[in-house]
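Reviewer comment 2.1 asked that we show a complete input and output for one of the modelled complexes. We chose the zinc ion case, as it is the one discussed in the main text.
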Amino acid sequence: MPAGGGAARAEQIATLEGLAHERLVSPHIESLLNEWIDPSTGQAAEHWDEPSRSLLRETWRDFSRARKLPSDFVIRLSRECSLAQQAWVTARAESQFSKFLPSLRTILDLKCEETQYLGYRDSPYDALLDTYEPGATVGQLTPLFAQLRARLVPLLKRVQASKVRIDDTCLHHSFDHTKQIEFGRLVLVAMGYDFERGRLDLSAHPFTTSFHPTDVRVTTRVFEKDLPSCLFSCIHEGGHGLYDQGLDPRYYGSPLGESVSLGFHESQSRLWENCVGRSRAFWQCFYPILQHTFPQQLAGVPLDQFYAAINRVTPSLIRVEADELTYNLHIMLRVEIEQALIERRAHPEDLPSLWNDRMEAYLGITPAQDADGVLQDVHWSMGAFGYFPTYTLGNLYSVQFFEQAKLELPQLEEQIAAGQLVPLRHWLEQKIHRWGRMFTPDHLARRVTGNGVTPEPFLRYLEAKYGALYRL
Ligand code: ZN
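Response of the prediction step:
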């Protein structure tokens, strides 16, 4: 879309959102649901089979949330978010927070209004969290983040104090664009990403979009002097793509044909990107192929050196480039700030200083300009308050699921080292993908691992991995 089309597009999307909302909350849908659902519990009668009960429960959830929002509010919010995104693009390009501030104020007011419609018990932030991660609350997340902070910040300090210096210059020579994409494609094929039902293309920011389990599209981006960027965004988006290809096509168009939560979706991308893609086992098979693809740059770089380079820890300003150890510290500061904004404990004009203070406290660095700080993410301009925690939940779930997969697939390590990734994809499809929203996120996590979300496996994994790499 040309930049000049932005305002008209905002109106078009707002109109569609309004129509979709009206249809969902129509008297017809309401009378059907009232026949089949006990509105006091949100549960369907016992005589329905399990998929039907789940379908009714989830449809009721969507309906009752939507019904709390007036149609004119839905249209207003959609329009303002489209406009704010355009203001954010300009503000970020010029690194001027003041150019985004008026839009941010508007969006924040609307999101606070939304929490009043949706209702909540403890914090208004809960109402927004529930949009992205059904069932998640501040009461659950606060201790979880506290446990992470208590062990991640000291671990980072120990890594920084280590005498081991990891050199990653081998990743920043000149790498041919086409060959980078071809290698990414090769890994996607090995993961079982089905190119009959999926595509790989280029875009400014990597993402995954899905129209049907038979039409899934992932994108990547390529930088000549940054080998990890294309490589890991292919694997990351591939993980999202496998989830979307693994949804049951029989349930297409219904809640059961949708992913269960954003935290679960992110767990799939992070499992493939980190637990698999940044493991030594994975590169035992794939590194010789990568060396063969880029002999001039990598022939003289041993596997151990390459493995260390792709796992180098370095506090950085930009979330999407963060390593596994510092990533959740980036999320933590965003969650603390947005929760304070929604609870009206912080003011939008103070955002840059709130941001920079926390960057200094958690990561020991301060951005020189807002484009590398508070303006870097699109989420707030989209009105996506409550979205950020799902990244951390995804990281925690990814390790929980991977540990469980190792228990149930005793050959997994050897299979990965031999480049056989399909057994893992199959396990994830059977355990997670195919179920869509059949179970709530917490119920599904318990079915797969026996536990709800917990930080312990993730912290153990990081401490072991970086303990070995940095000889702590
Ligand atoms: Zn992702």
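The pocket of zinc ion is lined by residues 236, 240, 266, 269 (CB under 6 Å). We note this here for comparison with the apo prediction described in Section 3.2.
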